[in-house]
Each structure stands twice: as structure tokens, then as C-alpha cells.
Design brief:
Length: 80
């Protein structure tokens, strides 16, 4: 299958479509979380920026980041 040019072209197209769908969902969910009911959720925005910095700059493992985010969300809901 690796030598079949037509199959490789079809798989490349499918891969591009899947990446597009995942990116579309990420943008849609991000928009709905950060701007619920036409107002900015500062906790969601702050946690998104901190998560991005931890992932990109400090190479923080994502499985720890998920646990940290869940704990932060629970604590935030208990306080507010």
C-alpha cells in the first residue's frame, strides 16, 4: 500500500479533512466556553492562557494538565 500513489493521495485528503474537522470543533468549543451568553468568562480565558503557556513554554505533561484543570474548576465552583 505504501507504493500506491492513488491510495496515498486519498489518505492525504482524508487526513486533511479530519484535521479540519478537529480544528473546527476546537474553535467552536473554545468560543462557546470563553464567550457563553455573549459575555467573557474570565476564569475560562485565564485557564486557557495558563494551559497554553504550560504546554508550550514549560512542556508540561498534558495528563497532569487535565487533572490540574479539573481540580481548578472544582475549586473555582466551590468558591464562587
Amino acid at each position: 500500500m505504501a507504493g500506491n500513489q492513488r491510495l496515498q493521495a486519498a489518505l492525504t485528503g482524508v487526513t486533511a479533512a479530519v484535521v479540519g474537522v478537529v480544528l473546527n470543533l476546537a474553535v467552536w468549543f473554545g468560543y462557546k466556553v470563553i464567550w457563553p451568553n455573549n459575555g467573557i468568562d474570565l476564569f475560562a480565558l485565564t485557564s486557557a492562557v495558563i494551559s497554553l503557556l504550560l504546554l508550550q513554554k514549560l512542556h508540561f505533561p498534558i495528563h497532569y494538565l487535565v487533572l490540574l484543570g479539573a481540580a481548578a474548576g472544582v475549586i473555582w465552583r466551590m468558591v464562587v
